[in-house]
Design goal:
The complex is a heterodimer of chains A (353) and B (371). Chain A is mainly alpha-helical. Chain A contains 14 helices and four strands. The chains are: A mainly alpha (353), B mainly alpha (371).
Chain lengths: 353, 371
């Protein structure tokens, strides 16, 4: 009798958690277990995983508001990233140095994110039902448009523009001397030789995650969830659907902008031109790996998903390399991330949760 | 009378906004680029022969109501695998092309089946799913070509294989089949070469598509495209019909990729297929097609306009601003912008039609109640 209940419980757990997540989780666990045996330093691996988690989690968080309001997966993340890039480059252009530059970058990015998000939201309201495909192409075309702008905008800081012509921004700009590692080093905890805990990044993420969580439980946030799960009901309650959706898109875009700044301060470089082109896909698949679906997502999904996804990204190259002397990590990354998106897209939509 | 014609023009422009916009861009770009008409015409002819076949593969899924089949990249991968084998076996000329096509077809059918089944599970968001599926299969393709070939799948020709002993090199020289179809039956008018044989093959596909529309299966597909539920109640196997449409599309895309690459002459093993879907879709949309409606005329008009813009924009950018790079970014932007705009216009029109239908229904009901 007892056996059955345990099996049932396990089955329930599997059903709740989902096979793909279990497989990916076990895969990651195997990688961590194998690491010491093939000569990979576990402390370095853990530290790298945590670091990459911190770099990417805000961008993954940017998925949440739009999923909540029923706008689907935010394939238009590059738009938010562009707002962040504008903020970052402006902060450098005006020569803010050190931590101030990071703060100023966030401040400069905000109006762009709000304006872009507002327009993007307006557009998505006109194409209800086909958001995801259009979001993808809004992202792509805005990146391509900004490629022209990076060439033409009158930036003049010599650390950013091409040396010989003095015009047009470089493809990669170093954040050294500006906001390189300002969050990484903030209250960083160093344990042993190889392990560093990037406290600043986690603090910022915790703050943002808490704000989003609190927002989703506020009156406006509940309205947003209602719009996403049952628009007819929401309208009957007197919620302005279009406005709520626009608000969610603005929030997502702004989080995308902040996300890329967090990413850059740790990565060390601002990548312009085609850099943001494919950045939406890893973020989308990360939240899906965390257990979100096309119309349902929570902060836990963000944390679990980013950890699993980034864990695999960090662990596969080092472990795989040592085991079979071949770097298959790129292929694994492509298959896992896109496979996860496919899995989410082909599941029957739970229109009413 | 006059009023009606001006209204007609207005609606014509509104229904073909993308095409009109492209006409404007091209008419500004051509004089700016400074290219001679004969150069432009010969370039356009080359590109017509190169791309039309690939774009024709998109028509049948549109007919079946599955939108733009970004999964055509799957067919392109099948075609490339065929070409790799043919090059390895040192077959040359037309036999090589035929052999490559024969190899690609079963792979295409298999991939098309897979794609069709997955899209059946994602009804209503076929486009984004087929798009992601393209990325996913790209990973599988890399797994096979970069790791499988030369280790599990035997490749004899060492010049094809990476120095490490397995995996295909980044570029494969298709010297054996280069231009074999194009130069089979050449015609020259005013010094402009016309690859007649390629155009005959393209014409054959066009005839096939026209014929196919009239068959029972083609009619079924159109019915499925109109309304899946009505089609199902009429006894049509909806899911099967949809799979068949994708399979045909994938097979045509595979052959199209082989024709495309025989014209170019080199295969970028890991890049050639990735952009093909986007460019084909953009060209078709420029030709005036929409997500739910496309015909053969759209294909050719689309190739001409889209590639005209592609040819002239770097030079126009250079002459205008002094930077060719700008023109290059411009054309990338325009390609993506076109797709975005068409998709948005399509969704808006669909919404408007739904609204109009609902209103009509309400009116009818009102009239009934009054009776």
């Amino acid at each position: 009798m007892e056996n059955i209940t345990i099996i049932d419980r396990i089955r329930d757990f599997i059903k709740h958690f989902g096979w793909p997540r279990i497989i990916i989780g076990l895969f990651l666990l195997t990688l961590f277990v194998m690491a010491p045996f093939v000569g990979v330093n576990i402390n370095t691996s853990l530290s790298d995983t945590l670091n990459r988690f911190g770099m990417n989690c805000v961008m993954v968080l940017a998925m949440v508001p739009m999923i909540h309001s029923g706008c689907g997966l935010n394939f238009g993340l590059p738009l938010g990233i562009i707002a962040g890039l504008l903020g970052g480059t402006l902060a450098i252009e005006f020569n803010f140095i050190g931590p101030t530059s990071f703060l100023m970058a966030m401040i400069f990015a905000t109006p762009f994110a709000v304006i872009f998000g507002w327009g993007y939201g307006k557009l998505l309201n006109k194409v209800k039902g086909g958001e995801m495909m259009i979001a993808t192409y809004v992202g792509f075309s805005s990146v391509a448009f900004m490629c022209m702008m990076w060439l033409l905008l009158p930036y003049s800081n010599p650390t950013m523009v091409w040396g010989y012509t003095g015009r047009g921004l470089r493809t990669t700009i170093s954040t050294e001397g500006y906001y390189l590692h300002v969050l990484n080093d903030f209250l960083a905890i160093r344990i042993g030789e190889h392990f560093v805990f990037p406290t600043g990044m986690f603090l910022l993420f915790a703050l943002l995650a808490f704000v989003i969580w609190a927002f989703l439980h506020s009156k406006k946030g509940t309205a947003m969830t209602a719009v996403g799960s049952n628009p007819v009901f929401a309208r009957a309650c007197g919620i302005d659907i279009d406005k709520t959706r626009i608000l969610s898109v603005i929030l997502s875009t702004w989080l995308g902008a902040i996300g890329i700044l967090v990413y850059q301060q740790s990565f060390g470089f601002i990548q312009l031109y085609m850099g943001p082109f494919f950045m939406a896909l890893p973020a989308v698949s990360a939240i899906l790996i965390g257990g979100a679906s096309v119309n349902k997502a929570s902060i836990t999904n963000v944390i679990v998903g980013t950890f699993l996804f980034q864990g695999i990204l960090t662990m596969t190259p080092s472990v795989m390399n040592s085991v079979i002397q071949t770097d298959m990590s790129e292929v694994i990354r492509i298959v896992v991330s896109n496979g996860m998106i496919l899995y989410a897209l082909t599941r029957k939509t739970e229109a009413t949760r | 009378m006059k009023k009606i014609t001006s209204k007609g023009i207005k609606s014509l422009i509104r229904n073909n906004l993308v095409t009109v916009l492209f006409l404007v861009i091209c008419s500004i770009g051509i004089p700016l680029s400074g290219y001679s008409p004969s150069y432009l015409i010969s370039e356009i002819i080359v590109r017509l022969s190169r791309n039309s076949f690939l774009i024709l593969s998109l028509l049948i899924p549109i007919m079946a109501g599955m939108g733009l089949n970004f999964g055509m990249t799957l067919g392109a991968m099948a075609g490339q695998i065929g070409l790799i084998f043919v090059t390895d076996w040192n077959v040359v000329g037309i036999p090589a092309m035929v052999l490559a096509i024969i190899i690609s077809i079963p792979i295409s059918i298999l991939l098309g089946q897979l794609c069709g089944r997955i899209l059946n599970k994602a009804k209503g968001r076929e486009m984004v799913t087929s798009y992601i599926l393209g990325f996913f299969m790209n990973g599988v393709y890399q797994l096979i070509v970069l790791y499988g070939m030369g280790s599990i799948i035997p490749i004899k020709n060492t010049s094809l294989v990476l120095p490490r002993g397995y995996g295909i090199r980044n570029t494969v020289n298709l010297i054996g089949i280069r231009r074999s179809l194009d130069s089979l039956f050449n015609l020259s008018i005013f010094g402009i070469k016309i690859p007649l044989m390629t155009f005959i093959v393209i014409a054959l596909v066009c005839v096939f598509i026209v014929w196919f529309r009239k068959t029972k299966l083609g009619q079924d597909m159109r019915a499925v495209g109109q309304d899946m539920e009505v089609a199902a109640s009429a006894g049509i196997q909806v899911e099967h019909t949809r799979i068949v449409s994708i399979v045909i599309s994938t097979v045509v895309a595979g052959i199209g990729m082989i024709i495309y690459l025989q014209n170019i002459g080199t295969l970028n093993t890991y890049n050639s297929h990735t952009q093909i879907g986007m460019f084909s879709v953009a060209a078709l949309l420029v030709g005036g097609a929409s997500v739910s409606k496309a015909n053969i005329g759209n294909v050719f008009l689309g190739v001409i306009l889209f590639h005209l813009m592609f040819i002239v924009s770097p030079m126009a950018g250079k002459n205008l601003i002094g930077q060719a790079q700008l023109g290059e970014y411009f054309r990338v932007f325009v390609s993506y912008g076109v797709i975005t705009m068409s998709l948005v216009l399509y969704e808006m029109r669909k919404k408007r039609e739904n609204l109009a239908n609902a209103e009509k229904l309400q009116e009818n009901q009102g009239a009934l109640n009054e009776d």
